[in-house]
Write a structure and sequence with these properties.
The chain is α/β, with parallel strands linked by helices and 330 residues long. It is 32% helix and 25% strand. Helix 2 packs across helix 3, helix 5 runs parallel beside helix 6 and helix 6 packs parallel to helix 8.
């Protein structure tokens, strides 16, 4: 008997902020799984900022969404029918088949997750691409050392909050920016950053002068524009600049300011490297690589067990329990 699923498709490419008319809400019949396939019911889906870029036309670092087809994204689901004995009914899996209630897929396109390590939704956040981006940016790209000073823009966001916590675990002095008083309270009260400021209230240069009189060792760029410029002024010679928002950071500047930033990077011998992680294949294999490595296992998974790292629940990257949204379909 065919299973019905509701899914969200891209109806048109948005201009500016997407509206409901950019999406189509469709009910489809799913086939029974063939040998080597499973039927999965989604429990949580992830809605991430990079998805807005995939709605545009043109080339990018990740394939664009196609008009008339379901959107894609990270999701955690439970197997409810299986034609593969290695993945029995009840198994929880990570996939890129978000934006729908259920789907049929080959077992090879899925990754079984370990819920004894962390709650399922954590694999879409702190133990997912956002956590990995923060880890790689700080410790693989920037090679952050214990006791150094690091500035993390958008510190209350998904990647930023992970980066703040990782840096604090290494006894670093952490400066973070955010856009509201509630986020500042979160940074100061829960994440225990050393200095937090609202980037909309004053010049970021003034805040960094107050917070880092001896300069910055690392700037973790999650934003663009004025904060990037301010951080370039504050970085010490041979400072490091992992850029989770590198492509936006330079292109949003005027030509004169962009050239000035590039010259500053060159003159100060700064290391500036992009650390966007979005490959579908890498996402599916990432928890295995990330969690089973000695560093990540003890630096990320163990603090999750003990509660010393807090998975972010209110950022622009978040998990949506599918059951709670089922009554809101149009």
């Amino acid at each position: 008997m065919a299973t019905q699923s509701r899914e969200i498709r891209l109806a048109r490419r948005p201009q500016g902020e997407p509206g409901l008319d950019c999406f189509a809400f469709t009910t489809v019949n799913l086939p029974d799984p063939a040998p080597g396939e499973v039927l999965v019911q989604n429990l949580c889906i992830s809605v991430d900022p990079y998805m807005r870029g995939r709605m545009n036309e043109g080339k990018s670092y990740v394939p664009q969404f196609e008009i008339g087809k379901p959107l894609e994204g990270g999701a955690i689901g439970r197997v409810i029918a299986s034609q593969d004995e290695k993945v029995p009914v009840g198994t929880l899996v990570l996939s890129m088949y978000g934006w729908r209630e259920a789907f049929v897929a080959s077992v090879s396109s899925l990754r079984v997750i370990d819920t004894t390590l962390a709650p399922p939704s954590a694999y879409l956040g702190i133990l997912g691409v956002t956590g990995l981006t923060a880890w790689v940016g700080l410790f693989t790209v920037a090679k952050l050392k214990d006791g150094e000073t690091v500035f993390i823009s958008a510190g209350a966001g998904a990647v930023g909050s992970a980066a703040c916590q990782f840096a604090k675990m290494h006894n670093c002095r952490v400066i973070a920016s955010a856009s509201s008083n509630d986020k500042l309270a979160y940074l100061r009260g829960e994440l225990k950053v050393d200095y937090a400021f609202n980037y909309r209230g004053g010049d970021p240069r003034d805040h960094l002068r107050d917070a880092t009189p001896e300069g910055l060792n690392v700037y973790f760029d999650n934003t663009q524009g004025p904060q990037l410029e301010a951080a370039l002024d504050a970085l010490v010679p041979y400072g490091r600049l992992p850029c989770a928002a590198a492509s936006r950071g330079i292109t949003c500047l005027s030509p004169g300011r962009a050239i000035s930033c590039i010259l500053c990077v060159s003159a100060c011998a700064l290391k500036a490297t992009s650390c966007q992680i979005i490959s579908e294949n890498f996402l599916l294999s990432m928890p295995r690589r990330y969690l089973l490595s000695r560093q990540a296992n003890w630096s990320t998974a163990k603090p999750l067990w003990t509660g010393s790292i807090q998975p972010l629940q209110h950022s622009s990257t978040f998990s949506i329990p599918v059951q709670e949204t089922s009554a809101k379909w149009l």
